[in-house]
Design goal:
It holds the Pfam family Mpv17_PMP22. InterPro entries: Mpv17_PMP22. It is a multi-pass membrane protein. It is found in: Membrane. It is a single chain. It contains 6 helices and no strands. With 153 residues, the protein is mainly alpha-helical. It has one domain. Helix 1 (13-27) crosses helix 2 (29-35) and helix 2 (29-35) crosses helix 3.
Length: 153
Amino acid sequence: MPVESRPLRDASLHFRVLQQYLFLLKKYPVLTKSVTRLFITGPVSHFFYQLMETWLPATDPYCIVKRLLLDRLFFAPGFLLIFYFVMNILEAKGREDFEKKMRGSYWTALKMNWKVWTPFQFININFVPVQFRVLFANMIALFWYAYLASVRK
């Protein structure tokens, strides 16, 4: 379901920005999503959503539930693990500190992830067009990463 970008004449600034974003999204989907999100999570999310469309098409029985379970039980725990790992590296801490953080707050953060993200991901993976899913998740992620930073302290 790709969206066709059409030029807008005499459009306001926000419409021109959206037009440029759609153009770049169509021409350079992975690069555009990478710039609008962390370098790793943008491309990984892009390919995950694309594969989800292939593995669980809308014609699949119970696809709404299957997509949500795939995201919440496999993708979310893995992404949270990556977040903890990358933050540990950025903070120049060792393996012991990583293990301590994992034991101390990973399970709490994962449960909160399931509480906070599940309604948004339900909407995202079932009703948002695939080309806008990374952008939709980015908007929610601003608040989520602020929460994670406070939990890790």
